[in-house]
Amino acid sequence: MSKILEFKDYGFKLAIINKLMYVDGVITPQLDAESFIEQIRGLEEGDGYDVIEEEGYDTIPEIKEYFEKLEITDTMVESITELYSDGGDEIYLQIIPFWSCEDNIFDVKSAEDVKLLPNLKKATLLFDYSGEQLIKEFKELGVELESI
Q1: Does residue 131 surpass a pLDDT of 90?
Q2: Which of 44, 52, 83, 144 has its CB 3.0 to 4.6 Å from that of 123, i.e. a possible disulfide?
Q3: Residue 62 DSSP symbol
Q4: Over 90: is that where the pLDDT of 118 sits?
Q5: Domain range for residue 69?
């Protein structure tokens, strides 16, 4: 039986979701901000575009909440040996459609969740460039970490 994983680092969880949903297609359907907003807010088809145009420069709260609550199981992550993310990943553009990549809102801040991915060996992630401590923590857990 699969076990639901409890992530502590939102940035790390988003990198995992991006891989599982938008890269590997393990999680379906892929969330699309416009249609999701139409559905969750009870809007007419096509009205999601207007919401994105108006609110897309900031975090769209319903989408952030969806990803925070999305359940990831241990069997979903078993095959992940490498993890690559950058500011142009689809998941970030669903949460903040017009994200400029100029802030650290999606940065990984902790190595704690690496323990949830037993086969992870290498990761390229968003994190603070002064993150020597984070690189060290990942290495201690057997994962080579690089920054974008």
Answers
A1: no
A2: 83
A3: H
A4: yes
A5: 10-147
Q: Which of 8, 19, 10, 25 is nearest to 120 (CA)?
A: 19
Sign of CA dihedral 98, 105, 91, 48: negative
Report the alpha-carbon distance of residue 96 to residue 84 in Å, rounded. 19
Residue 1 inside a domain? The answer is no
Query: Model-level pTM?
Result: 0.94
Q: Which residues contact 40 (CB under 8 A, 6 or more apart)?
A: 62
- Which structure tokens are listed for 132? 């020597």
Domain count, the chain: 1
List Cβ neighbours of 82 (8 Å cut-off, separation of 6 or more).
120, 121, 122, 123
Pick from 70, 110, 75, 127: nearest CA to 94: 70
Spatial contact of 96 and 63, defined as CB atoms under 8 Å apart: no
- Token pair of 30, please? 């892929």
Burial class (CB in 10 A: 0-12, 13-18, 19+), 20: buried
Q: What is the mean pLDDT of residues 115-119?
A: 97
The amino acid sitting at 134 is L
Does residue 77 sit within a domain?
yes
In a domain, 4, yes or no: no
> Is residue 2, in this structure, part of any structural domain at all?
no
Return the structure tokens found at 109: 């801040």
